[in-house]
Amino acid sequence: MNKKIDRRTSGLDGKVAIITGSNRGIGKAIVLELGRQGAAIVLNGRNSRRLKLIKREMATKGFIAVSFRADVRNPHECRELIEFAVKSFGRIDFVINNAAAFSRGSVEKMAPSNFSCLMETNYYAPAYLCKYAIPHLRKTKGTLIFVNSVSGFYGFPYNVAYAASKMAQAALAQALEIELFDDKIHVGILYAGYTENEEEKIMLDEDGSLVYLPQRSNVRLATRESVARAVADMIVNRTRKKTLSFLGHFAEISSRYFPRFARRFLIWKRDAIRQYYTLTGGSRVTSLRSSKVPDSLV
Ligand SMILES: NC(=O)c1ccc[n+]([C@@H]2O[C@H](COP(=O)([O-])OP(=O)(O)OC[C@H]3O[C@@H](n4cnc5c(N)ncnc54)[C@H](OP(=O)(O)O)[C@@H]3O)[C@@H](O)[C@H]2O)c1
To answer: Which CATH superfamily does the domain covering 10-278 fall into?
Structure first.
């Protein structure tokens, strides 16, 4: 248990959290954790079926949740999501930028649309959402959280569309922290390590097709619940930055303080990294009507 927090007294009763990409994976775990701590939740994602399921699960547990289906790559839908939260609960305290798109492959083989999809989802979307949320967060002296990644520290080979979009997101968080300093809005960035994924987790293969990401067995995976607890702790303690996992600390320290070592290390490991990111398998997403596929695809 985090020393600074006594969970029995860290209630978030009366607080309102918007969590993007919360019908699956880490986002869903954050929903359950903040719900358990008493916050009212605005769920988001594009797949209506999964949104309904988690809303029902929240109700069964006696937690408060409403849902808003929105593609956060669209600025108008981001504005509507914010307006819906205010209309539903009268305030916004926490915005958790969690929704993300993923891809794998080399720059040479990468479908051009992958670069734009990842940038739109992982960088533009949080920027739009923050833009519309700031006036409301100013009133509550609230929190903006960015769920970033180990890949946000360095231009990782064979994963650069993702790394570049997460590095851009980190730049957004850094800038916002200064811009919102006088408003006392808390900005936190979480660099999560490799985490267990849900069966339905989809990523873009290098040719632009969709594949289900198989559970990775060649790296140590954190639980989604542990990442969710880290987010909750950051909110309660108003933590500016948190890095999870050994790999996260290694990537952060080596890229920031020993960049020459980081470069040499990646050159040394380049074959293993290429294999990890290009040969991880995964079955193709074949039917657009499959109940597992989002209503609107990437
Ligand atoms: N899993 C890991 O190993 C890992 C490691 C480090 C960091 N992270 C970070 O953790 C966060 C969550 O990752 P995850 O593994 O839980 O991913 P995930 O299982 O693929 O979930 C992604 C969520 O984002 C939603 N989403 C995607 N595009 C969207 C869009 N355009 N508009 C609205 N919602 C959208 C998806 O729902 P719909 O498809 O219904 O829209 C889904 O709910 C991400 O920010 C990721 O970068 C993950």
So the answer is: NAD(P)-binding Rossmann-like Domain (3.40.50.720)
Distance, CA of 250 to CA of 68 (rounded, Å): 38
| 164 vs 144: CA distance, rounded Å | 21
Question: pLDDT tens digit string along 111-145?
Answer: 999 999 999 999 999 999 999 999 999 999 999 99
Pairwise CA distance, residues 199 & 192, whole Å: 19
**Which one-letter amino acid corresponds to residue 137?**
L
- Looking at the DSSP assignment, which residues form a beta bridge with residue 149? 192
CA distance 47 to 70: 9
Is ligand 1 within 6 A of the CB of residue 69?
no
pTM comes to 0.93
Any bridge partners for residue 153, and if so which?
A: none
Per the annotation, the verdict on 162 as an active-site residue is: yes
How many angstroms separate the Cα of 15 from the Cα of each of 35, 92, 165?
Answer: 10, 7, 30
Write the pLDDT tens digit of every residue in 256-290. Answer: 999 999 999 999 999 999 988 776 667 888 654 34
**Cα atoms in the Cβ-side hemisphere of radius 13 Å centred on 287:** 4
Beta bridge partners of 186: 143
- Mean pLDDT, rounded, for 168-189: 98
* 173: CB partners within 8 A, 6+ apart: 144, 146, 148, 187, 188, 189
The pick from 22, 26, 95 for probing ligand 1's pocket by mutation, whose C-beta has the most ligand atoms within 8 angstroms, reads 26
